Batch of 2 targets.
Target 1
Amino acid sequence: MDSVMERMSLARSASARTASSSSASLSTPVASPRPAVIGHRGAPVGAPENTLASFGRAVRDGADALECDVHLSADGHLVVMHDSSIDRTASPHGPLCGGDIADLTRAQLDTVELGGGERIPSLDDFLDACGGGAGRPVGAVVEVKAPAAARATALALRERFGAQPMPLPDGTPPAVIISFHPEALRTVRETAPEIPIGLLAAGVDDEVMQVLAELRAERVSVWIQTLEDGDADRAWAASGASLHVWTVNTPEHLDAALAAGVASITTDDPGWVVRERDGRAQPVG
């Protein structure tokens, strides 16, 4: 999430939003006094994004869950990287520093050097980090960047967690799949209905509410810059979905997220958000 093109698309969508006139069919959602903190591609303030170093840093900094992005390689492997190409994040001094992931094999991608000597993880590597390999078990939030990767991602999570996933110690599911693409989420729902799904959107307008209802989505993630009063109520009315925000990196955006009572906050600096969240929750006196 949060590429330049995605931000432009979200900004255009936000400018065209209209307030929903749908009436709530479910009870009003309860605001979360202690939202979960999700490391956006790990903790890229301290380590290269979407790398094992970044995921480990986020866990050490107290993140409750880790977010990653997945694509399919040319030979069908699930690859953890935000962009559809390696151009931006690959070291220019490595043996391979350009090309689309969909055109490269896993063996070729294994030769790519990222910052700090890191390599491109697989989805299994990411899930290992979430499962305790980075220090303690945390939730996995997997963003499907291309609809073609949706089925493989759902099957990989089912293989890892089973058709009846055991919740984490805090009661949350071990893995969630999110996407900007309703068709990708539809594929996940059909392939592995036990996996919670979340739609990424500029805000919760009538069109988004319709998609949430159709997919029976458990959550919706809204860009913090387009968050509006009433988004939580509209999401809940549509499908009982919880409201989440990304990417929160400033005090002003953190204030807005906490005031909205969101269920989770995705950030590039999970250590800072954890400290702020927990510090504000302490009683005064």
Target 2
Amino acid sequence: MKVSKYLSRHLRHQPERIGLVLDPQGWVAVDELLRAMDRHGMPVSRAELEHVVATNDKRRFAVDGDRIRASQGHTVDVDLGLPPATPPAHLHHGTVAPCLGAIRAEGLRPMNRHHVHLSPDRETASRVGARRGRPVVLTVEAGAMHDDGHVFHVSANGVWLTDAVPPRYLRFPG
């Protein structure tokens, strides 16, 4: 878990902190990443890295040959090159009760990320919301959004991405 969090921090948010430069699509050479991790007190073998990537329950990382990147969730400027995709009728978003007032007023915004992250099922959204407290799962009328011209993408690990979700497309529990 420790290596996974380290990778997330440096492949999504702060590559410069360990001297990495991501390419425009967020990729970096695996060997370069391993050298940077070693220089900054997180020595990991290639086999250990491959194990973390393969066993990460959220499949947060993608490997393509000798390159690695985070699948989504970047705060640094990258273009993942994901094609537009047609979403299912409903997607879900996990949050916590203190955020509901702002969400009712403004909808879902990407905040410091490039996109709003949506889950294909309520269970995944609940796990996402639970990271910050007791989860509240919102239903997103993704099919209607798409019909109205909103663009969706789906990352390699099944997370749906869109620029924002206006309040009119949200369904709140209860």
